[in-house]
């Protein structure tokens, strides 16, 4: 892994920032392809990619600052904008990005739930998978010591090495990125079923939250918050419980994507 790809004078080009930007671009490209394939809203995708991408960065940073690292940042307020140091919480990025996306769809009279199913959910999880590559290159979102020879040993310049030294750590960020790709495929499969409007997006929220909840037991970059659980686990558990309820409710009472149209009987010839 390489935190710095190269330098332009004294200015470092960091792999974290480059791959994070790439994740937003490729998520936008994925969204454009899916919208173009569906035949709706593809001309809105570039604008939404910019707005939601920027909102995602801001939300991810603020979520990390206030829910994960406030003990540090309360004494280093000027470092809050230093996103190149790492410290981006995906959950916060999804929340603020979703809010901005919702406002955009309402402004342009786009069916929010349909858009979320067709475009948003698969594209977002693909962007998250690529984003975890940035974490690996930067040496953050790392796991706890494995207690064996298995695991990742991070370079001395990373936060993981500063905390755990040469101990092998669980590859939490790698496994999360791989699981995200699996969720991406599952969402594509769900899109082609006769699902209720909104169920694909809710399935994304539930599946990712479930994966995140269990992977957090391996994470070693921050401590527990309450009930022996970490803040990300408490958030994930809440989303899972609410999401499963919404998924079931939509399945029972929501409108179906592929509901057959009511056909008028052909007029009999006289």
UniProtKB/TrEMBL annotation:
- Provide the protein name: Phosphatidylglycerol--prolipoprotein diacylglyceryl transferase
Subcellular locations according to the entry: Cell membrane
Chief localisation class: membrane
Instruction: Provide the membrane topology annotation.
Output: Multi-pass membrane protein
GO BP terms, alphabetized: lipoprotein biosynthetic process
Could you give one GO CC term from the UniProt record? plasma membrane
Q: Could you tell me which pathway this protein works in?
A: Protein modification; lipoprotein biosynthesis (diacylglyceryl transfer)
Tell me what organism the protein belongs to: Acetonema longum DSM 6540
Instruction: Please give the function described in this protein's UniProt entry.
Output: Catalyzes the transfer of the diacylglyceryl group from phosphatidylglycerol to the sulfhydryl group of the N-terminal cysteine of a prolipoprotein, the first step in the formation of mature lipoproteins.
Q: Which family does it belong to?
A: Belongs to the Lgt family.
InterPro entries in the record: Lgt
What gene does the UniProt entry assign to this protein? lgt
- Alphabetical keyword list: Cell membrane, Lipoprotein, Membrane, Transferase, Transmembrane, Transmembrane helix
Matching entries from PANTHER family are given as: PHOSPHATIDYLGLYCEROL--PROLIPOPROTEIN DIACYLGLYCERYL TRANSFERASE, PROLIPOPROTEIN DIACYLGLYCERYL TRANSFERASE
EC numbers on record: 2.5.1.145
GO MF, one term, reads: phosphatidylglycerol-prolipoprotein diacylglyceryl transferase activity
Q: Which Pfam families match?
A: LGT
Q: Which residues cross the membrane?
A: 15-35, 47-63, 83-105, 112-130, 174-193, 200-220, 232-253
Chain sites annotated for binding a 1,2-diacyl-sn-glycero-3-phospho-(1'-sn-glycerol): 132
